Amino acid sequence: MKKVLLSGNEAIARGVYEAGVRFAAAYPGTPSTEIMEQFAKYDGIYAEWAPNEKVAVEVAIGAALGGARALAVMKHVGVNVAADPIFTVSYTGIEGALVIISADDPSMHSSQNEQDNRNYAKFAKIPMLEPADPQEAKEFIKLAFQISEQFDTPVFLRTTTRVSHSKSVVALEDSHLPENKTKLAHHAAKYVMVPINARMRRVEVEKRERALRRFVETFAENKMEINDPEVGIITAGMPYNYAKDVFPDYSYLKLGMVYPLPVKMIKQFAGKVKKIYVIEELDPYLEEQIRAMGIEVTGKEIFPYTNEFDPGIIKHAILGDLRGSVSPYKETLALRPPNLCPGCPHRGLFYALKKSKAYVHGDIGCYTLSYLKPLEGLHSCICMGASIGMAHGMSKALKEKGKGKVVGVIGDSTFLHSGITGLLNMAYNNSDALIIILDNSTTAMTGMQEHPGTGFTLMGKEAKKVNLPVLVSSLGIENIRVIDPNNLKETQIAIKDELASSGPSVIIAQRPCALFKRANMKPVPPLKIDPDKCEGCKACLGLNCPPIAWKEGVTREGSKRKGLAVIDETICNGCGLCAQVCKFNAIA
Amino acid sequence: MKDNKVKSILFAGVGGQGILRASDIMCQTMMEAGFDVKKSEVHGMAQRGGCVTSHVRYGARVYSPLAASGTIDILISFEKMEALRYLKFLSHDASIILNTEEINPPAVNMGELPYPADIINFLKNHYAKVIAFNAAEIAQQAGSIKAANVVLLGALSNLTGIDRAIWENVIKKSFPQKLIKLNLEAFQKGIAA
Ligand SMILES: Cc1ncc(C[n+]2csc(CCOP(=O)(O)OP(=O)(O)O)c2C)c(N)n1
What we know:
The complex is a heterodimer. By secondary structure, chain A is α/β, with parallel strands linked by helices. Helix content of chain A is 35%, strand content 18%.
């Protein structure tokens, strides 16, 4: 058996392949993205990026109703987008198999919230598995498909950032293609969820729940380790590893399946140990259910509700031990906030937009980084697609007070994900806000995924490419302009004019992401700052472009400057934005 | 495998310095040397020019890919001031490998905060073993500034007691043919640094 180092996400992709699953749909989102990117590399599979998570789940449901074993993958907040079909496919069940991966992000390393998606399992009555490391991730995804087939149910697999993005040793196995069971089978009463049928299926769901509750009592991945009988720990997923790291000798009940819970097994464990700790990140999800079984446990009284854990947090909570965890260095260290890349087309747009002094409703993508100093380009950001509805709502509520002052900005991938309906609403309800679509020809934030506006599919095939101006126009928007955000003057004029115009307007700022290889942009030589011309005004530094740095104290005779701006040629890509903001023609 | 204790290495630096590649090479080396190994890393938002860290842990059996704070055995810092950011994670007898290269954070560029002075002496006053050198300059001598991460791995290999041949073998597998010679040389120069 070959052993390799794999991340949790690579291991999941491998597990899907080994299980003989050949169909998957997803929308990218950290920390889930690499699952699909890796899966798409295997032979003989079909994998697609859908425009959003709801569509991805619906695509997977369709495949599963046709008898296929299908996978849908998303980050935790993607499950919110897809919740509507998920709650009802729980009633219908499927013909083939359906697994939905939710990649949660405790600590919000790359997310806008840290919702605990174990709650969805209980809420939607869908069984959920939770692996603790890459090896388990590979095994559990296979089990998830088996359970889906055995119980005619969708199954959740939950990972967290630490499982998805940690690497460890994984044993590879061959891929076993099961018999192909795809076919057109009509079972309308099972799949047409009109009330009369839904009521019947509702009863079936409870039958399935009872069957699953019996099943979990003997499920091999719910594991009891009886060591020290004084202390027992009930946990699941990555926190198991954190706890084992610092308390190897305690007794453990490690749950591989977090919905439904094995009530008998938990009671049995409680009978074998004196004191029980429930160790789980985020919500007291296990704790509340275990308490409801009449078992006394210690949980969120001592463990945090917020952020991911690590071994030190667990040790500290249980023993109050803080040894070694204070830094001898006491001064404030300058932070390194994430920044837009050198040559990023978003930079020019936000530089120009700031001059308009408008209220800017932001959205989710690389451009969200413009919120930080010195660009300070956004004044709100809630979730994907929200910028458009929010700009419209604010503009309507403020009437004259908001006239010419309310903007929504949204990336191309985000617009296609969930911005189209919002814009349709703006046309329909005659909005006065301005929407700017930042079309950089890719899904940059999550690592350059294709989408319906890029002209390519996940599997690298050429595809229909949506024509944004035509799409926007067809929604009923009449004021549409296409501009190059690297041309500051043109951008400023377009923003000014469209803020002044009445009715809804859309500016499409088009320029490929600076990291986008396929755009075939001709390499431009890096720029230099002429030390004989720089007056030290720091206007270029206001762009916060990574190559531009300040050298304090480099003065010049005949100039009042206190220092000199310099460009690091190794990372400058010559976009020329700084040359446009330099009043002294010092940059070329 | 002599002692049972899990060893914890913290890689730290700034996005774009090849930290994840370096920690991958280390993991592969430890796996090929017969250890269990786990590592954690940051993706996504945190990679856009921000701080990057990776924990690597190896031993007979490793559970957690993250080390408890106060237990890191070796800090390998790819940028000078970044070392200061993670001292609370170090054990009292930790060793530090320090690239003395400086990359200004935006607040330093804007003149809002100073770049910390006298970092090396501060570290030497608090930790028994501090190995400091400019890995970028050494990498340049080997042929490319981009090999600074492998120079640092050379210095790290002095502290891990793993057969050099295993490191070199993994380095050979980690780069395209035309970059192998350069990186092996960078590794040697790191050992001598
Ligand atoms: C519902 C949901 N799905 C996925 C994500 C992850 N995500 C954050 S931004 C983004 C897309 C960004 O692409 P785009 O709008 O084109 O902006 P860019 O990053 O290219 O500037 C994605 C997929 C999310 N935050 N929410």
